[in-house]
Write a structure and sequence with these properties.
It catalyses: Transfers a segment of a (1->4)-alpha-D-glucan chain to a primary hydroxy group in a similar glucan chain. The chain is an alpha+beta fold and 737 residues long. Among the domains are: 19-106, Immunoglobulin-like; 117-231, Sandwich (Immunoglobulin-like); 634-734, Immunoglobulin-like (Sandwich). Strands 15-16-19-22-23-24-25-26 form an eight-stranded parallel beta barrel, surrounded by four helices. Strands 27-28-29-34-31-32-33-30 form an eight-stranded antiparallel sheet.
Amino acid sequence: MRKPRATAATSGPDGLASAGDVAAIVAGTHGDPFAVLGVHEVDKGFVARCFVPHAEFVTAYTLTGKNAGELSKRDEGGFFEGSLSLRKRQPLRYHARNAGGDWWLTDPYSFGPVLGPLDDYYIAEGSHLRLFDKLGAHLIDHEGASGVHFAVWAPNARRVSVVGDFNEWDGRRHTMRVRRDTGIWELFIPDIAAGRPYKYEIIGPDGVRLPLKADPFAFKSELRPATASVTALPPVHQWGDEAHRNFWRNADPRREAVSIYEVHAGSWQLHDDGSFLSWDELAGRLIPYVVDTGFTHIEFMPISEHPYDPSWGYQTTGLYAPSARFGDPDGFARFVDGAHRAGVGVILDWVPAHFPVDAHGLANFDGTALYEHADPRKGFHPDWNTAIYNFGRREVVSFLVNNALFWAEKYHVDGLRVDAVASMLYLDYSRKAGEWIPNEKGGRENLEAVSFLQRMNKEVYGHHPGVMTIAEESTSWPKVSQPVHEGGLGFGFKWNMGFMHDTLEYFSKEPIFRKHHHGDITFGLVYAFSENFVLPLSHDEVVHGKGTLLSKMAGDDWQKFATLRAYYAFMWGYPGKKLLFMGQEFAQRREWSEARALDWNLLDFRAHRGVWQTVRDLNYLYRSRPALHARDCEPEGFSWLIVDDSANSVFAWLRSAPGGNPVAVISNFTPVPRDDYRVPLPTAGRWREIINTDATDYGGSGKGNGGAVEARAEGGGISATMLLPPLSTIMLELAPD
């Protein structure tokens, strides 16, 4: 059921629009143009009124081409009206003429609304889970015409118009209809198709015209520095990834191998002239590389539309639009499908914590603090000079929840890594006393943000089983990765920032001093199973003067490479899912910059190739050995073998899981080989060496144990005597009988 169309209450007894209405339409100040323009019943007949600048003559026709009447010019600005020879109300086309020529246009004000009462109800309630089918710009057929339906939320605006090249960016021509129950403005504009740039011209509550605004629900955007939204066809890609999606729908990701390759799509590789690869070109290069290197997932830094390259996508202005930097949105769908067909998942970095204050974006959207808090103590982020979403407003929560569902449904993404969760959870994040407002209970917790995150996770897991959410949360907030019904935030996983910090701090120390920092390694196991963890060596660690992972390792060049290989094997043997930022898999020497491609020529050098081969082999072992992944999140899968040998900086532990042989992980973090080193093992017998990071194939010195050691029962226990190579990690697997 649609709302009844408004009629011209201000027309005179002759059916003519009042002079005030005419002047307001021409000036673009009328509060309800549908009450004046379009088709209206007068004395059992119909009149038509239209605003067509530049026209001298206008004739009305039905959509079938029947002449319905000549319209008279009421105002030199382009206001026309006249009687119609119609028996029933229907949409009209106009033939406009002037001395320079003629043109046809279909009258948007002769059509009824597209949204209905049920939309109003669920939108107002904040429970609408298909907003992306209702808001934004949608190509539709409506009442016999083809065109685009536009809808945008701007409850405090005096007027909202669609502007674009189709109306000379003139906000008087396509003023929208307001649905007052929800603050949604909508308009069906016939005769425009895909590929047309548009924005919204908004007059705020104070009567001031705002800078033109991009569509918050735009599905496509112009390439920066242009900032308009673009009308787009819905995705038409024919998916062929059902096998991949079925696997993850039925899997418990905590018990699967998850090894993530973090990628900045704009700088992984570039064309020779420095321009971006398209999604199809990335698919042809990145997917085979990831498959060859053995990662299970690609995690993209934010790919939604953003104006500023050095923000890396974390200051997004178009949450629903894949960035135009890499081509059409369908290209991203093809990339995801191609990755899935190759057995690789795709995770997106997602940024619901804050948004930039660019004039064309969400800030002060309808002349008020609509998406953000008005009070800067809650609505402005001092670290990034950005606005903070108002998580207490149901329409804002609905906007963000729908966005998470949108990427899962429309683009089949496998997961969302949620950025800057800690900044959302704490009202005093990066603020001094007096710069923040306590919650209703007097505390520092952002209860509205907690509620939003819980709802987002419930909706994503409820509607899209197989999709995982991952929190970048750097504090000790409890139960981040536990279900909402158990009092948790509901994420699937949490980044283990403590692991990253402590281990990098340890490996930056000269080996001779590491014995004094033994606890940097052992402490992490105190809390390793308090959450479902991802171990991240992310982009944040290799930018802003921090240097690359290779440069962080202590010692000379040989020691740096040896330590990095040992570190990776230590991490792949450690409980938790894995994440490595691009370039670190081959020991990039230069700090990462979004402005240039990775230094791929380094793979021609033995030391760098050896690191890449180490990562490749570790990924193979991690995926093929249940002991190394099936109990990543369960304490039953881990036990220390050697925890207290700080004098030698040696660590050893056992990984185990049902369905696989146990694996012992042994690390020697000094450059001194340890001969005849005794390691306790749980079972007597032959233990095969399945990786040794000191192997010559990796660029090491080649010291080892001939491929295996023998564990024997001696002195009331079982142990094996072995050589621990310098600055190395080895893994031993109990050989089958």
